[in-house]
Amino acid sequence: MQVVWVEIPVKDLDRASTFYQTVFNLQPTEIGDDGVRRTTTLANTNEGQPGISLNQTQNFEPSNKGALVYLDTGGDLPGHLDRVEAAGGKVIEPKTAMGDAGSYATIEDTEGNLLALYTYP
Q: What is the pLDDT of residues 20-76, one digit of tens each?
């Protein structure tokens, strides 16, 4: 099991981008907007390190409960999803394609934690 990506939910992407750029001495990054969500990548996945992005999307609200962590399924997203409910969890959002970035699904574990399972195309 390896963390491959972390999404930080935000209400105001421009304000949050400025905050993280200031606190971590980051250069400004491009903001993507596909009509459903606005995102910007603070750190790309490289050399075994997880990527980090800010995500402004309806129903993905910031809270003091943490960010959304993506766990790599090693190319077997369907197999992992098949085992979620059998293990006592819930599939919240089924497999969703992200184009060239891969696919993910969101699940809730037995303790109520929201996680994303991820596979690269």
A: 999 888 999 999 999 889 999 998 888 678 999 999 998 888 987 888 999 999 999
- The answer to whether residues 52 and 79 belong to one domain is no
Rg over CA atoms, the chain: 15
**Residue 80 in tokens:** 């992992």
Please tell me the pTM assigned to this model. Answer: 0.76
Alpha carbon distance 23, 111 (integer Å): 32
| Residue 18: domain span | 8-61
Identity at 7, one-letter amino acid code: E
List strands edge to edge, sheet with 68-72.
32-33, 37-43, 51-57, 3-9, 68-72, 114-119, 103-108, 90-97
DSSP state of 76: -
Question: Which CATH number does the domain housing residue 114 bear?
Answer: 3.10.180.10
